[in-house]
Amino acid sequence: MSTAGEGLPPLPTLMVVPTGVGCRVGGFAGDALPAARLLAGASGCLITHPNVLNAAALYWSDPRLHYVEGWALNRFAAGDLALAPVRRQRVGLVLDAAVEEPLRLRHLQVAQACGASLGLPIGPVVTTEKPLGVTLARGSSGASWGTIQAVDALLRAGERAVAGGATAVAVVARFPDDPDPGALEAYRHGEGVDGLAGAEAVISHLLSRHLGVPCAHAPALAPLPPDPRVDARAVAEELGHTFLPCVLVGLSRAPDLVPVPLAPNGGGRVLWRADQLGAVVAPAGALGGEAVLACAERGTPLIGVTGNPCLLQVDGAALGLPVIAASSYAEAAGLVLALREGLALETPALRAAPLA
After folding, report:
1. pLDDT attached to residue 192
2. Given Cys at both, which of 42, 80, 172, 270 links 333, Cβ 3.0 to 4.6 Å?
3. Where do runs of H (alpha helix) occur along 140-267?
4. Could you give the 3-state DSSP secondary structure of residue 201?
């Protein structure tokens, strides 16, 4: 029995779900993973960011899913970076000096468990020379963001990890516990915005840009009391002591970041470039991000998922962009598969959504 796309070359596809803007799908704890798995099956090669794939103690390993931090994803889409698939990365672990015992021990045990049970090469483990000083905030739109006081300490710790042999870096910063009880309650019950996501993006962007290697972040938080009403989309974050397992697994096979001017011929390696992308899939109301706009300027087909609303209302009409509307990620996957098969989306039999 044949499967969808069998025998066809992959159609590299970019999936973007903006962080900290309350997306109905992808705005919680790895709840966009089923959509990513479906798009990976339809495309044969899905490039997406940790916000889509991270589910705390849960994760999904699939060679068709490629884990690329948000800053690097933007640079890839702009054509400044190429991505080189690898068999494995050695993941260094940077721990914020503010992480107290026994929370620090729990994170070290995650690293040990990923080494012993999953066979992942982990290390070195580096502690920042001083607390990073993370603060959380909300913008006027309700989107989350944050700041880090000791940027220099973060970057130096990352440098030490790379100097010690790490080819990718996971960072764990101590986040404030419950700074906004009402917002946290709403998020846990499936109605709010992830209050940590904006600050997490700041940390991972800084480190990725400085080091030029795959990076991702996991917040360190005190465990919350059990609540039987926690929404299924958020409950993955309630299952363990840390958010770190998915980050270590994701980074373990994250593609290398290759500056395009330094490797025009790829140095003999397989490289993915932005001009090879066959489609971009993003929430229909959140099309103003750097990666999406860079791809749209290049003429990459843009699929906007109307069934994934968020706080933003930056759609194709507002931007003057041609957008192929999909009511769900299942429909988006069908459109990606049609593109992979070389079918015209305007074909009446496909009943493709009209261009927005």
Report:
1. 76
2. 42
3. 151-163, 181-188, 197-211, 244-252
4. helix
Q: HSE of 241 in the Cβ direction (CA atoms, 13 Å)? A: 12
For residue 2, the model assigns a pLDDT of 47
Between 197 and 287, whose confidence is greater?
A: 287
- Eight-state DSSP code of residue 161: H
- SS3 of 42-82: the string is HHCCEEECHHHHCECCECCCCCCEEECCHHHHHHHHHCCEE
Q: What is the mean pLDDT of residues 77-104?
A: 97
- 13-85+257-350: CATH class: alpha beta
Query: Residues 98, 265: contact at Cβ < 8 Å?
Result: no
End-to-end alpha carbon distance in the chain: 37
Q: Three-state SS for 231?
A: coil
Tokens representing 287 are 């099309």
What predicted TM-score, i.e. pTM, was given to this entire model? 0.93
Half-sphere exposure of 333 (CA within 13 A, CB side): 17
Given the DSSP bridges, would you call strands 256-259 and 81-84 parallel, antiparallel or unpaired?
antiparallel
Pairing relation of β-strands 134-138 and 324-326? unpaired
Antiparallel, parallel or unpaired: β 134-138 and 144-148 = antiparallel
User: CA 68, CA 53: separation in Å to the nearest integer?
Assistant: 10
pLDDT tens track for 245-270: 999 999 999 999 999 976 555 566 78
Rounded to 10 degrees, the C-alpha dihedral 248/252/253/255 comes to 90
pLDDT tens for 103-130 read 999 999 999 999 999 999 999 999 999 9
- Contact residues for 342 (Cβ-Cβ < 8 A; gap 6+): none
Q: How many CB atoms lie within 10 A of CB 346?
A: 9
Give 188: exposed, middle or buried? Use CB within 10 Å, 0-12, 13-18, 19+: buried
Would you kindly state where each structural domain of the chain is located, as residue ranges? 13-85+257-350, 91-252
